[in-house]
Amino acid sequence: MNSNIKLINYDPHYAEDTVKMWRRSKKKAIDQKEIHSFEDHVYFLNHILNKDNHIRIAVDTLNDHVVGLLASNPQEINQLYIHPGYQNQGIGRAFVELAKSESEGRLRLYTFVVNQKAQRFYERNGFSVIARGHENEEGLDDLLYEWVASPSDNN
Question: Is 36 left (phi over 0), alpha (psi -120 to 50) or beta?
Answer without folding.
Answer: beta
